[in-house]
């Protein structure tokens, strides 16, 4: 927690100039070393320039350029001396993440370094003036070199300013006097003063996050619906970060440690009993059938992304196939298609699905917050009216994703609490009204009355499709839904159980999104706090070893976390409701947990994946060469297997629709794909 308070224990956000910043004292080592390297090279270059052109700087009789270079050498020398202190290994590399005591002198060095920016700025201004007024009649090469030095000064000052903006924490100050704080940095919030402080701090945090969202989404209309979404998301995000004082590098270090810890436990765990998808048993037959249906539907779910995914999946042939369609004017054909002015979106759907134009009943690319694109088509191969919903592909979709508080969704015939993800619930209601009120489904079943209804989607589209299937279930009892990589925080337990009869969710590997829910993120946060607070390594070692492990692999036992009094079972179980090794269960922290605000209440409501869950995993070692064969295995799972986030380089790559489609094709064709599935694949994909 910022503003000088901490509701857990004192974390290492550095406090200088009377406020806390989004950087720790041990984060200054690597930037300081890099700047030292640049400054030394600059000083050497300036010295060479000064020596080589010595005696030529008085070319117009005034010698301002000579004075500028001499002053620049002096300023650079002072800066280099100050930066050497940041590279002092015994001081800056000592201590741990939660024990910044040995680095207590770092703020004084920050003040010293900040003071040297004043003469550097003054000298950069004077240099710009002198170069402009005092360069007539001088050697052009020499003048060019001096101009380069001046420009370099301004570039470094610019990047310094950007760095300050980046680590500035709007909630970081002013700092409260030590006398007002308890010894462990915990303030009693049961008092009137503490309650007032908490209310003010939360209001400020919500306003800051609202401002950040408005700035990030400045290209979107600032109407009432968007403002309401910004406010809702701001309350959710600010509440999530309200009880920690972690800086980004602390989180990165905690994720690196947690990844190795999870790998250790996975290697020591007994092999699971896998339900084989061979047709030798009734269970296997059911799994085989569902895999074939899922592979077929995934083509339609992936096609909903339009030309971006089609081009990405067909880098060489895709542009050629779409170029002619995008450039031709076919106004008569596009009466049922909205928001596709060039025709590239619909053309890519035609190529991806293999359907004809006459097979499409309705296609919409209209995209607003809570209103996402979808299409309705006749799938003659499976004799189905198919509704495919697009996943996240725009900033508006991201806002729909992040509207993660709960919304009531009463369903006739379902007992128990019925609630769901607000953003996807509203998106499903929008599509439901289109399908039913506008007569789209009636039109489809008038053409093919014997067909059954199938709903599908990926990611955001998967969650929306599942909710849409729940809304349509009473009207279409034979409805089926195939949900690919749906979000974990989607349905209440009652709705999740209800959907098991007609929804199949497909999850690939260690995909992050099916494990995303507010309770899971709270669990992840507590695990990071626990593992970081009990590790006695300095942060630089954690990050360097973590990078090596992510890039080159190896046995995680080679990177021990060196935790004191640690039990593995503490990290293998969710920490919600447990006493963390780090969190002080004082009255102040309990007041946070008992808050009745909507955002805080929603954060404690459990949400689950929809339907039956078909989990696809790689069969074999997690790391292999680029030319090795990739094989998959499939098994039925349950929602409890996805109650915690798994850290992996593939946690984003496994969410990509093309990866899910390839895995399903591999399973149904019984032929392994020959790919380059190294752990670096996660860096080659952007989340869709």
TrEMBL record:
<keyword id="KW-1003">Cell membrane</keyword>
<protein>
    <recommendedName>
        <fullName>Diacylglycerol lipase-beta</fullName>
        <ecNumber>3.1.1.116</ecNumber>
    </recommendedName>
</protein>
<dbReference type="GO" id="GO:0047372">
    <property type="term" value="F:monoacylglycerol lipase activity"/>
</dbReference>
<keyword id="KW-0106">Calcium</keyword>
<comment type="similarity">
    <text>Belongs to the AB hydrolase superfamily. Lipase family.</text>
</comment>
<dbReference type="GO" id="GO:0046872">
    <property type="term" value="F:metal ion binding"/>
</dbReference>
<dbReference type="GO" id="GO:0005886">
    <property type="term" value="C:plasma membrane"/>
</dbReference>
<feature type="transmembrane region" description="Helical">
    <location>
        <begin position="64"/>
        <end position="89"/>
    </location>
</feature>
<keyword id="KW-0378">Hydrolase</keyword>
<keyword id="KW-0479">Metal-binding</keyword>
<feature type="domain" description="Fungal lipase-type">
    <location>
        <begin position="387"/>
        <end position="518"/>
    </location>
</feature>
<keyword id="KW-0472">Membrane</keyword>
<dbReference type="Pfam" id="PF01764">
    <property type="entry name" value="Lipase_3"/>
</dbReference>
<dbReference type="InterPro" id="IPR002921">
    <property type="entry name" value="Fungal_lipase-type"/>
</dbReference>
<keyword id="KW-0443">Lipid metabolism</keyword>
<dbReference type="GO" id="GO:0019369">
    <property type="term" value="P:arachidonate metabolic process"/>
</dbReference>
<feature type="transmembrane region" description="Helical">
    <location>
        <begin position="109"/>
        <end position="131"/>
    </location>
</feature>
<dbReference type="GO" id="GO:0004806">
    <property type="term" value="F:triacylglycerol lipase activity"/>
</dbReference>
<comment type="function">
    <text>Lipase that catalyzes the hydrolysis of arachidonic acid (AA)-esterified diacylglycerols (DAGs) to produce the principal endocannabinoid, 2-arachidonoylglycerol (2-AG) which can be further cleaved by downstream enzymes to release arachidonic acid (AA) for cyclooxygenase (COX)-mediated eicosanoid production. Preferentially hydrolyzes DAGs at the sn-1 position in a calcium-dependent manner and has negligible activity against other lipids including monoacylglycerols and phospholipids.</text>
</comment>
<keyword id="KW-0812">Transmembrane</keyword>
<dbReference type="GO" id="GO:0022008">
    <property type="term" value="P:neurogenesis"/>
</dbReference>
<keyword id="KW-0442">Lipid degradation</keyword>
<dbReference type="InterPro" id="IPR029058">
    <property type="entry name" value="AB_hydrolase_fold"/>
</dbReference>
<dbReference type="GO" id="GO:0005737">
    <property type="term" value="C:cytoplasm"/>
</dbReference>
<keyword id="KW-0597">Phosphoprotein</keyword>
<feature type="transmembrane region" description="Helical">
    <location>
        <begin position="28"/>
        <end position="52"/>
    </location>
</feature>
<dbReference type="InterPro" id="IPR052214">
    <property type="entry name" value="DAG_Lipase-Related"/>
</dbReference>
<keyword id="KW-1133">Transmembrane helix</keyword>
<dbReference type="GO" id="GO:0046340">
    <property type="term" value="P:diacylglycerol catabolic process"/>
</dbReference>
<feature type="transmembrane region" description="Helical">
    <location>
        <begin position="143"/>
        <end position="168"/>
    </location>
</feature>
